[in-house]
Design goal:
- The longest helix has 13 residues.
- Helices cover about 35% and strands about 15% of the residues.
- It is an alpha/beta fold and about 300 residues long.
- Strand 1, helix 2 and strand 2 form a beta-alpha-beta unit.
Length: about 300
C-alpha cells in the first residue's frame, strides 16, 4: 500500500501574482537553462523533504518540534540542515527541496528569478535584541520599545558599542534617528567591530549593544560566554523576516511535491500559532508569525 495514499491534499499553491506574460518569460528561462550540480542518478527520495535553513531559523533547535506534526500528518520525513554562507549554491546543487532564509537576501532573489525556485512564502521572523550589561544601568528593560531604550542609553551616556554587522548597524542607525539624533559623545563607541567581536568588546566595557538572539545564544553556549543579558522588544524593527523557497530544478532530483506540502503547512494558522507561542530560555516570543504577509 502506498504509505502516502491517505495524505490530505496539502498542495494548494500560494498565489504568485505574476502577470501572464512575465510568468511565460520565466517559464521559457526555466526550460532553456541547463541543470547544474550532482549526478543524473541522484533521484529525489519521495518520502523525504530536505529543509535547508539559515542558523537563525532554528534557534533552540526549534524547527524539529515545529515540523513534527507535519511528519505525523503526512508520513514525510523532514530532514533539517543548517546551510553555509553559500546556502543557495547548495540548493542549486540539489542539496535541498526547500530553503528557509531571510527575505532580503540578494541570493534568494537571484535563485527565484533564475528559475530555480518557486516564489518565496514568508513564514516567520527571528529576533534581534538589545544586550544589556549587568544591572541594566539605563533601565532599558522597562522601556516601551527599542527607540525609548536607545534614548535612555544616550540620555544617561551609558556606553554603547556599535555592532557593524549589516542589519544590526541598520537598526542602530534607525533607533538613533528615531530617538532624535542624540550627540554621539564618548558613550557612543564605534570600534569598527562586528558580530561576536563587537559583543565581546561591549561585555568588556560594561556596555550595551545590539545583536541577533540566535548568535547570542550560541556565544552563551560556547566556552567563552559573555556577561550580557538579552532584552527583546515586540517591535517590527527588531524582527527579520524568514521565507521559504521551494526548489524546482532540476526535475526529478528534488521532492517538489513534498516541499510544497511542507510550505503550505508552515503558513497554516495553527502552525503560525505554534511559532508565536514558542518559548526558549524564558524568552517568548522567540519567533514572530509572518505568513499574513502572503497573498492568502
Amino acid at each position: 500500500m502506498d504509505p502516502h495514499s491517505s495524505r490530505p491534499h496539502l498542495l494548494r499553491r500560494l498565489k504568485v501574482g505574476l502577470p501572464v506574460a512575465a510568468a511565460a518569460i520565466l517559464a521559457i528561462g526555466v526550460l532553456s537553462a541547463p541543470a547544474s550540480g550532482g549526478t543524473t542518478d541522484d533521484a529525489a527520495d519521495p518520502d523525504t523533504v530536505r529543509l535547508l535553513h539559515v542558523g537563525a531559523a532554528d534557534t533552540g533547535n526549534f524547527l524539529g518540534a515545529l515540523v513534527a506534526p507535519f511528519e505525523q500528518e503526512t508520513g514525510y520525513d523532514v530532514v533539517t540542515t543548517m546551510g553555509g554562507i553559500d546556502i543557495f549554491d547548495q540548493a542549486r546543487a540539489s542539496e535541498a527541496d526547500i530553503v528557509m532564509a531571510h527575505l532580503g537576501f540578494t541570493e534568494l532573489q537571484e535563485f527565484v528569478t533564475d528559475g530555480y525556485g518557486h516564489w518565496p512564502a514568508t513564514v516567520m521572523s527571528n529576533s534581534v535584541v538589545f544586550l544589556s550589561p549587568p544591572g541594566d544601568p539605563a533601565q532599558i528593560k522597562s522601556a516601551a520599545d527599542p527607540v525609548e531604550a536607545f534614548a535612555r542609553i544616550a540620555a544617561q551616556e551609558q556606553p554603547f558599542v556599535v555592532n557593524n554587522l549589516g542589519e544590526t548597524l541598520f537598526i542602530t542607525d534607525t533607533v538613533w534617528n528615531a530617538a532624535g539624533r542624540p550627540e554621539k559623545g564618548d558613550w557612543y563607541i564605534d570600534l569598527g567591530l562586528s558580530g561576536p567581536q563587537a559583543v565581546r568588546a561591549a561585555a568588556q566595557r560594561g556596555a550595551y549593544t545590539i545583536w541577533g538572539l540566535h548568535p547570542f545564544f550560541m556565544i552563551q553556549d560556547s566556552s567563552q560566554p559573555v556577561n550580557l543579558e538579552a532584552v527583546p522588544y515586540d517591535d517590527s524593527l527588531m524582527q527579520r523576516i524568514l521565507a521559504t523557497v521551494v526548489v524546482k530544478r532540476p526535475p526529478g532530483r528534488v521532492n517538489e511535491e513534498g516541499a510544497l506540502a511542507l510550505q503550505e503547512y508552515l503558513v497554516r494558522p495553527d502552525t503560525q500559532a505554534n511559532i508565536r507561542n514558542a518559548e526558549i530560555r524564558g524568552i517568548q516570543p522567540i519567533f514572530w508569525p509572518a505568513a499574513n504577509q502572503n497573498d492568502n
